[in-house]
Design brief:
The protein is about 40% helix and about 20% strand. The protein is α/β, with parallel strands linked by helices. The protein has two domains: about 1-115 and about 305-320, Nucleotidyltransferase, domain 5, CATH 3.30.420; about 130-300, Nucleotidyltransferase, domain 5. The strands form two sheets. Strands 3-2-1-4-5 form a five-stranded mixed β-sheet, with helices on both faces. Bound molecules: 5'-O-[(R)-(carboxyoxy)(hydroxy)phosphoryl]adenosine and zinc ion. 5'-O-[(R)-(carboxyoxy)(hydroxy)phosphoryl]adenosine binds near residues 10, 164, 167, 276 and 277.
């Protein structure tokens, strides 16, 4: 079974081909960082229009790189929830057209469920049940992945997503987007213990996340209480920007690590799968590996499977196809993930 996966849920136009159940044949992405850079965040209409320009080209590239033709495909999987509504519509319209013309099944994929299971493509011995930590620009949450058809939310952030926080701190430090890679590159030369930024606890929910406090703490460190002062010259700060970046990164990583390991322990599965763009973070990888109790395996997909990509959508589509969960051509999109 050859499945094409398409994702246009946010600012990446992505398509990948999977040989079911787990073999990735191609995984092509066109990013839009340059288009949104001047606006300090993703502009929905710009994202939709860029997807419209690119989606068929990215699909063509994914099919060619897989060494197949469109006629070889057995099913089309596409993210239809959650995400930016206009952005989702572009991928879904492309997927429907292909499914109709080729006369093959259409599969509607939940983007976060796809992040949860992406690691299956690279870890042959990985199987359900496991706990998944998904940390990206839009989401930070822990999921109970009981089986391919029972993936439930356990806890999540009550405010900012971890990746969003990296992106905002990058702006404060004058670094380019996406903020995750640029902040962690700067943090490599810094002291993670230079400043103790807060590790927020959510009342009555010990594994939920809250990152707005650490983001504000960095702002106040640079610009005083309320963040109203002009940022001081770097030379006037008692510590370097690298120290600030490292201390911020450590605060976020500590929260992710602590809550994820506590959840795996509570579930007793012995398997933690990490997904989403923040899973590329080297300090997170090192700390999770170092702090995991004996007998707990931590599974990290490679960067191309952590960030938004089409192969993870195809992989999730393979599970839906196997279960017969095929959509008709009237399939809708859902920005929140809740299906009407
Ligand atoms: O999953 P993803 O590609 O797209 C979303 O669905 O959001 O995640 C993108 C997010 C961005 O916020 C980016 O700054 C963050 O992942 N990110 C990182 C790293 N690489 C990407 N955050 C921390 N450390 C990294 N190395
Ligand atoms: Zn994502």
């Amino acid at each position: 079974m050859l499945i094409l996966g398409i994702d246009t849920s946010c600012d990446d136009t992505a398509a990948g081909v999977l040989r079911a159940p787990r073999k990735v044949l191609s995984n092509e992405v066109a990013t839009q960082f340059d288009l949104h850079a001047a606006f300090g965040g993703v502009v929905p209409e710009i994202a939709s229009r860029a997807h419209t320009e690119r989606v068929t080209l990215v699909i063509e590239r994914a099919v060619a790189k897989a060494g197949i033709t469109l006629e070889d495909l057995d099913a089309i999987a596409v993210t239809n929830r959650p995400g930016l509504v206009g952005a989702l519509m572009v991928g879904v319209a492309a997927a429907k057209s292909l499914a109709m013309v080729l006369g093959i099944p259409l599969l509607g994929v939940h983007h976060i469920e796809a992040h949860c299971t992406a690691a299956l493509a690279e870890h042959e011995d990985l199987d359900f049940p496991f706990v998944a930590l998904v940390a990206s620009g839009g989401h930070t949450a822990l999921y109970d992945c009981v089986s391919a058809h029972e993936i439930t939310l356990l806890s999540q952030t009550i405010d900012d997503a971890a990746g969003e926080c990296f992106d905002k701190v990058a702006v404060m430090l004058g670094l380019p987007q996406p903020g995750g890679p640029s902040v962690s590159r700067l943090a490599e030369g810094g002291n993670p213990k230079a400043v103790r930024f807060p590790r927020a606890r959510v009342k009555n929910d010990p594994t939920a996340f809250s990152f707005s406090g650490v983001k504000s703490a960095v702002l106040y460190y640079l610009k005083g209480p309320g963040g109203r002062r002009d940022a001081p010259d770097r030379a006037d700060l008692p510590i370097s920007y690298a120290d600030i970046a490292a201390s911020f990164e450590q605060a976020v990583v500590d929260a992710l690590t602590k809550h994820a390991l506590a959840t795996v322990e509570a579930k007793g599965y012995g398997e933690l799968v990490v997904g989403g763009g923040v899973a590329a973070n080297q300090r997170l990888r090192a700390d999770l590996a170092a702090k995991a109790p004996a007998g707990t395996k931590i599974r990290f997909p490679s960067h191309s499977l952590c960030a938004d990509n089409g192969a993870m959508i195809a992989l999730r589509g393979a599970a839906l196809l196997e279960a017969g969960l095929i959509e008709d051509l009237g399939m809708d999109v859902s920005p929140t993930g809740v299906v009407r």
